[in-house]
Each structure stands twice: as C-alpha cells, then as structure tokens.
From TrEMBL:
<protein>
    <submittedName>
        <fullName>2,4-dienoyl-CoA reductase</fullName>
    </submittedName>
</protein>
<keyword id="KW-0521">NADP</keyword>
<dbReference type="InterPro" id="IPR002347">
    <property type="entry name" value="SDR_fam"/>
</dbReference>
<dbReference type="InterPro" id="IPR057326">
    <property type="entry name" value="KR_dom"/>
</dbReference>
<dbReference type="InterPro" id="IPR045017">
    <property type="entry name" value="DECR2-like"/>
</dbReference>
<dbReference type="InterPro" id="IPR036291">
    <property type="entry name" value="NAD(P)-bd_dom_sf"/>
</dbReference>
<feature type="domain" description="Ketoreductase">
    <location>
        <begin position="7"/>
        <end position="166"/>
    </location>
</feature>
<dbReference type="Pfam" id="PF13561">
    <property type="entry name" value="adh_short_C2"/>
</dbReference>
<keyword id="KW-0560">Oxidoreductase</keyword>
Amino acid sequence: MESLADRAYLVTGGGTGIGAATALHLARLGASVTVVGRRKDPLDAVVAEVERQGGKALAHPTDVRDPEAVEAAVDATIEKFGRIDGLVNNAAGNFVTPAEKLSPNGWRAVVDIVLNGTWNCTSAVARRLIDADRPGAIVSVIATYAWTGHPGTVHSAAAKAGVVAMTRTLAVEWAKYGIRLNCIAPGPTETDGAGGALWASPEDRDRVLSSVPLNRFAAPPEIGDLVGLLLSDRTAYVTGEVLTADGGQWLGRQIYGPPLPTH
Ligand code: HXC
C-alpha cells in the first residue's frame, strides 16, 4: 500500500473523473500529488479530500495548452514537495461531431489539449528528471480508438494516436535516463465528463453498455489503481506499453454480422 511513498506526481485533469480518482489513489499509496486543471474549485475539492484522508496535495489551476503555465505547475510541485517523480497525462477534451462539420477551431481545441498538452507536460517533467539525474514514470490516459479509430471523434482519435506514438518514441529515447512511459486505455468509465459528452441519453448509455463484453462501465478508482501500478516499481521493466482496461470492448467489436450474445 505504500508503493509510492515519498514520491510526488503531477496529475492533469485532476479535479474530476479519472484524474480525481487517480490523485486520491496515488495519495493513498503515499505520494504527494499536484492536481492541475482549468477550474480551481474542483481542484480544491480534491485537495481537501486528499488531506482529509491524511495525504498531501496541491491545487494548481493550469491550462495544459500553455507551456509556461505547465512549467509553473512543475515549479510549484518541486517547491512544495521538494521533488517530482512523474506525471499522469489525464486532461482531455472531446465532443462527438461528424468530421465534415468539425471546424478548424474545434479540431485545434481537442488536439491542443490532448496531444500538445501531453507533450507540454511530458517534456516539462522529463527535463526536470533529466536535469536532476533521477528516474521517473509517466502514464498517459488514452482510448482504444487510438488504434481502431472511431466515427465522430476524429480529433480525439488522431490526438490519442499521437500520444501513443509519443509514448513509444520517448520510452526508447529516455530509457537511458531511467524514465518509463506507458499508456492506459480505459473503456467507457462512469464519469460526468465522458458520460455527459459521449453517452448523455439513456439510449446511448445502453448502446455503449451493450458493446462491453463484461457488461458494465469502469469505475474511476479502478482506473486510478492501474495508473498507480504503472507508476510504481512493480512495473519497473514495463515501458512503451499500452494497458487496455475496457472490459473487452474493442476486441468484442463485431465487424461481420450481428453481435454475438456475450451477456
Ligand atoms: C461541435 C463543438 C462542440 C460540440 C465545442 N465545439 N463543443 N463543436 N460540437 N459539442 C467547438 C466550438 O464551437 C469551437 O469551435 C471549438 O470547438 C472550441 O470550443 P471552445 O468551447 O471555445 O473551447 P474550449 O473552451 O477550449 O473547450 C474545449 C472543448 C471542451 C474540448 C471543446 O469540450 C472541453 O474542454 N472539454 C473538457 C472535458 C471533456 O471533454 N472531457 C471528456 C473527455 S472523454 P468554433 O469554430 O465554433 O470556434 C475522452 C475520452 C473518451 O476524451 C473515451 C471513451 C471510451
């Protein structure tokens, strides 16, 4: 239970959903956590909950699209906790739209958050680790449509595919510094953000659920648990990998004929 004792991590999109659950979990594993996101109130609520449970956390309102703001968040982490050991790239933006109706600004907003934001945070944290000659671990939250694609989310799918390529490239390039990089690909997870954007109606919810062989949504804490595993030394020999936690959803996609009854 103390697998991240005395370490410090930055969690982006840490105020809500998977990010908040991950921050709480990392704190329970002994880590200090800086939660960043655009809105201060949810970040403050996560810090209050971490502290109520006896952990250490810092809220730092930050837009991951802004490299200077990201640098400031890393500085604040080191100032407050004396170190930084890694990062969880969880911040995302997404909405469903036919590709032909997607405006240049809509494309830019999602790619800026998901791909450029991940690079801003990854490079900022890694440079500190390299300068300090310390090992570290970085986990990025993606989606299985990074490799399958998915109609209606061309911006997000393209950006998440870029994050996978970034992860695999840097896993090799920065192995010599002892920096590991991995991705986690959650399936449909019970959060307001994804749920509100992607399966808002009961019909959409049923449709999504019926696509999951294990026949349920993921709970945010179980994704946080896997992020904690990938940050910990229990996976010290794992780098450049994608851990899929989707209840079998993408493997169960039926290309020919009606879906097989899985439940
Ligand atoms: C069409 C839309 C739109 C929508 C925004 N836009 N929402 N177009 N349908 N529903 C367009 C806007 O019209 C605008 O283009 C451009 O996108 C930028 O919008 P802004 O609101 O100005 O941008 P911003 O405030 O930066 O917001 C970014 C955002 C927003 C991505 C649009 O939704 C956001 O910040 N979301 C964060 C939370 C989130 O989405 N979480 C879910 C992640 S789930 P124009 O041309 O009009 O200027 C996920 C993985 C799910 O990613 C995987 C499931 C398996």
